UniProtKB/TrEMBL annotation, chain A:
NCBIfam families: prfB. Belongs to the prokaryotic/mitochondrial release factor family. InterPro entries: PCRF, Pep_chain_release_fac_I, Pep_chain_release_fac_I_sf, PrfB. This is Prokaryotic-type class I peptide chain release factors domain-containing protein. It comes from Nepenthes gracilis. SUPFAM superfamilies: Release factor.
TrEMBL record, chain B:
The keyword Transferase applies. Keywords: Methyltransferase, S-adenosyl-L-methionine, Transferase. InterPro entries: DNA_methylase_N6_adenine_CS, HemK-like, RF_glutamine_MTase_cyano, SAM-dependent_MTases_sf. Residues 45-61 have a biased composition (Low complexity). This is Methyltransferase small domain-containing protein. It comes from Nepenthes gracilis (Slender pitcher plant). PROSITE patterns: N6_MTASE (PS00092).
Length: 542, 397
């Protein structure tokens, strides 16, 4: 028989703002109750110390006055005092229980009972009244399927999204806008976690764990229980977040009903904090690919079309330099082949910093420009293309391909002549060819040949790694393609400077009407939009 | 007048060959650091028998110059003034075009522009300004944004000096490395100045070769090494940084300028406890360690005398002849080194010499095989980046 434990926490001390929250624990034995970490899900804001008293309610079926038939319990029948992790005593708590009135502020109420197997998705209401501490609607989850957290009037994250409340600026004190923004983030985080699949898996694992003979094979059981624990942790975190949201909504409604302005503004602040918090979590979720946290190389190559394309390639490269600088990434030009008149034929820059690859990978593909070419004396409209490749620099040395010296051909530029003491040149460019794959890398921007060789080797290493990654994953995701593989038909974005002004992403249809700001590095809108769209795809994938 | 400066050449080492003496005189006259009196000091030193090689090296009055990038930021200019310097410098560059290339395989305008950027990098406090100076022809859409015109830019050399330096670079073809007073070599930045050879990228490989042999050989890794004709100290420093904690290097040179510059570089990398610098001709400062060396590297002057006049102007007109001229065939020093190496090294000790190319490598290898049979093993010709057979390596048997 699974046991259920719900804890409702209140804080109404002199020092802390009112903050109700609910944690739900699944426990199997009494001793587990003692060992369960009863810290609030809001422990990042406060932690419950020994000075707070937990008041568990015991609702064990034996002690219940009646066998639960309806899904409604009234919980204030039995209770026991439980001092932090020490053992429990049970006694009845009815009406205005004296224990709630004690001095240091009641921190939490814990409801604990052995639930009959038949119980699922039970909702328990409990009610306490002590001057200003008012709350009702304790949610319970049973062991089989977690109930979706909802407000007392049945609002869930999904419904909030369905409501399509307008998301206003953070500064607007509108709880619906905050709630909507938070719900969006939660939605995205769930997508990233592949929520549906995850829940199915969790169900399987729970079923497995509930088998009586599971521990006959401790290794297997350990594995299952670890996986269960880790998935459960993720689910709990998201659920707790949803729960917090629902409670805040309950709270704010309540505050309005009661005309408690202080409580309302406190809750509004809490909602705003949650909104920022969820935005951060959302970004983390967007950038949770294998190599997302890596630094990277960005390579740009001009398409056909001579000087006009080369100029466009230089503009694209400049756009990335500016974007990288905004993000505080270190930018180094590794290799640059200038055009004869203007622009670049191709160039490679290195971006150093956290998540450089995670963001920049959204930019891989062909970028198309439409404008009146400054290089055309006839002032005609031209369309030009620039291809962009983004290559992660793997941090984990062990996951890199071992390149053996004997597979390399290293060439110096302008190598003609006797060399050595005969020549004093500052030309120290180096080109390295990986003979088995034909991959080459060039560097001429360092001041010593040794450093140029090291830089070129780093580029070569990453290109070879990338090739291997693409081979292993057998995926044709663009961001694993090298420049040579990117097909010129594969356009991802169009920049129109004439006759009208527009930049439009062809993958997401995200568009802006101010090309200048984009070319000056304001790319985040495009990148984030693409990354979340990519999540949708992952989610839909079987 | 630097009257304390003299060159002492201990007598019981190899006498200075007439060629070297000639070069010494030339290079001294040229750099103007030494007058005729010093040359006679040199001549008399050659005949003196009393000087002991193990006594402390004579102090030289040469004070090494500080490379631009290490100088204090005591000058300033404005952004527009720097912009006009840059555009003036670029005009000078474009007037060169490919003339230097055609003349003597010198630098083309792309390279000179890169050097200009490096000069700015070394001179300006805040290098992030450089892209806004309009130095790059390929700036794309943003070229002149960033800095307001009144902003003061702090400099390590005055703007006047910058004009002068760049003029020297283009009109006199003074090597870029002498202009900024440093050369980036391997992962090092070495101070260089007139009178000291600018270390070449080919030579970087000797450190790799040493790295390969010390990798699996503790005796060599923790051993005593020598870099003869150390110049700026490049090889000695490169090697000292890959040896084990007990490894030591003795670096020698005949040129007092080289000695003082090498000292400067060694101290800048904090290696003065590992590298000992000694002045003298080839093995003479090493007689006290005869037969005790675990490794010996040398990039001796190896250019045949008659070729020197036709070298690239930066080399022929500005670098010290003492560092380049290897006698009629260019082999004088290499052969001399070869003769003594077997005696200097421990059995199992490693040597690496740089040469002028395939011909010298072969001659030397043959010489070792035929004239010094049994002294060396695993003698090997190793090519440089450009696939020119460049180095001779081997072990003492
Ligand atoms: C080609 S340079 C090499 C400098 C340095 N090792 C490098 O690789 O950059 C040759 C060096 O040998 C020195 N040298 C010439 N004759 C010498 C001699 N007789 N004894 C010792 N050093 C000598 C020169 O002063 C010069 O520094």
């Amino acid at each position: 028989m699974p046991n259920l434990l719900a804890r409702r926490s209140y804080l109404r001390s002199l020092f802390l703002p009112p903050k109700p929250s609910i944690d739900v624990f699944l426990i199997h034995t009494q001793s587990e109750l003692r060992n369960t970490n009863l810290c609030s899900s809001n422990s990042r804001r406060f932690s419950i110390s020994n000075s707070f008293v937990y008041v568990p309610f015991y609702l064990g079926s034996k002690m219940l006055p009646h066998t639960p038939k309806s899904s409604e319990f009234v919980s204030n029948h039995y209770c026991s005092a439980h001092l932090h992790h020490q053992h429990c005593q049970f006694w009845s708590l009815s009406g205005k229980a004296p224990i709630l009135g004690h001095g240091c502020g009641v921190s939490s109420i814990i409801i604990y009972f052995q639930a009959p197997n038949s119980l699922e998705n039970v909702k328990i209401s409990s009610e306490y009244n002590r001057n200003r501490v008012i709350s009702n609607g304790v949610m319970l989850f049973c062991s089989h399927a977690a109930v979706e957290p909802s407000t007392s009037d049945g609002l869930t994250v999904e419904r909030i999204i369905g409501n399509q409340w307008t998301i206003l600026d953070e500064s607007a004190s509108d709880w619906k806008s905050h709630a909507s923004a938070i719900a969006q983030s939660v939605h995205l985080i769930k997508k990233r976690l592949q929520w549906k699949k995850l829940m199915v898996r969790l169900e399987q694992l729970s079923a497995e764990l509930n088998k009586p003979n599971i521990w006959d094979d401790p290794v297997h059981a350990g594995k299952i229980s670890r996986e269960h624990g880790s998935l459960m942790g993720k689910v709990k975190e998201v659920k707790a977040f949803e729960q917090d949201l629902c409670e805040h909504i309950d709270m704010i409604k309540l505050a309005r009903e009661e005309g408690d302005a202080e409580l309302e503004s406190e809750t509004m602040k809490a909602l705003l904090r949650m909104r920022r918090d969820s935005k951060e979590k959302e970004l983390d979720a967007l950038l949770s690919g294998d190599h997302d946290s890596c630094s990277c190389f960005i390579e740009v190559q001009a398409g056909a079309g001579g000087t006009e394309s080369m100029d466009w390639a230089a503009m694209v490269m400049q756009m990335y330099k500016a974007w990288a600088q905004r993000h505080g990434y270190g930018v180094t030009v590794v290799d640059e082949m200038p055009g004869e008149i203007a622009g670049i034929k191709r160039a490679t820059i290195k971006l150093d910093g956290e998540y450089a690859f995670g963001y920049a990978k959204a930019e891989a593909g062909v970028h198309r420009l439409v404008r009146i070419s400054p290089f055309d004396s006839g002032k005609r409209r031209h369309t030009s293309f620039a291809a962009v490749a983004v290559i992660p620099i793997l941090e984990d040395v062990s996951s890199r391909i071992q390149i053996s010296e004997s597979d390399l051909r290293i060439e110096r530029f302008r190598a003609g002549g006797a060399g050595g003491q005969h020549v004093n040149t500052t030309e120290s460019a180096v080109r390295i060819t990986h003979i088995p794959t034909g991959i080459t890398a060039t560097c001429q921007n360092e001041r010593s040949q040794h450093q140029n060789k090291a830089s070129a080797m780093a580029v070569l290493q990453s290109r070879v790694d990338q090739l291997e990654m693409a081979r292993q994953a057998q995926m044709n995701a663009q961001h694993t393609q090298s420049l040579t593989e990117i097909s010129w038909g594969n356009q991802i974005r169009t920049y129109v400077l004439h006759p009208y002004q527009m930049v439009k992403d062809l993958r997401t249809n995200y568009e802006v009407s101010d090309p200048d700001s984009v070319l000056e590095g304001d790319l985040d809108g495009f990148i984030l939009c693409f990354l979340s769209a990519a999540l949708d795809k992952d989610e839909d994938a079987p | 007048m630097k009257t304390t400066c003299f060159i002492r050449v201990p007598s019981f080492c190899t006498p200075i060959s007439p060629i070297i003496r000639k070069h010494l005189q030339k290079s001294f006259n040229k750099t103007g650091h030494y007058n005729q009196n010093h040359i006679s000091t040199l001549n008399s030193a050659q005949t003196s028998i009393s000087t002991s090689p193990s006594s402390p090296a004579p102090s030289t009055s040469h004070k090494p110059q500080t490379p631009v990038f290490l100088r204090p930021l005591i000058y300033s200019s404005t952004f527009p003034d720097l912009q006009s310097f840059t555009s003036w410098a670029k005009t000078l560059v474009s007037s060169v075009g490919s003339t230097f290339v055609q003349l003597d395989n010198g630098s083309d305008s792309t390279l000179l522009l890169r050097e200009l950027r490096w000069l700015l990098e070394d001179s300006i406090d805040d290098p992030s300004l450089i892209p806004h100076l309009g130095i790059c022809q390929n700036g794309g859409i943003t070229s002149n944004t960033g800095s307001s015109s009144t902003e003061v830019v702090r400099l390590r050399v005055s703007l006047g000096q910058m004009y002068q330096l760049w003029k020297q670079r283009i009109q006199e073809r003074r090597p870029f490395q002498y202009i900024v007073g440093c050369e980036h070599w391997r992962d090092l930045v070495l101070s260089v100045e007139e009178g000291v050879l600018i270390p070449r990228p080919e030579t970087e490989k000797i450190v790799d070769l040493v790295g390969n042999v010390v990798g699996g050989n503790e005796m060599l890794r923790e051993g005593l090494w020598a870099d003869l004709g150390t110049g700026s100290g490049a090889l000695a420093i490169g090697i000292a940084r890959i040896l084990g904690k007990n490894g030591r290097v003795i670096a020698t040179d005949l040129s007092p300028t080289a000695i003082s510059v090498a000292k400067f570089n060694v101290e800048r990398y904090g290696l003065q406890d590992i590298i000992e610098i000694k002045q003298g001709s080839w093995f003479s400062p090493l007689v006290h360690v005869e037969g005790e060396l675990d490794g010996l590297v040398c990039n001796p002057p190896y250019i045949p005398s008659e070729d020197i006049g036709s070298l690239q102007a930066e080399v022929a007109k500005h670098e010290p002849r003492l560092a380049l001229d290897g006698g009629v065939e260019g082999m004088d020093n290499l052969l001399h080194l070869c003769e003594r190496t077997a005696a200097m090294l421990k059995p199992g000790g490693f040597f690496a010499f740089e040469t002028n190319g395939e011909k010298q490598c072969r001659l030397l290898a043959n010489h070792m095989e035929n004239e010094m049979t049994g002294s060396f093993r695993d003698v090997n010709i190793v090519s440089d980046f450009a696939d020119i057979p460049r180095f001779l390596t081997g072990f003492c048997d």
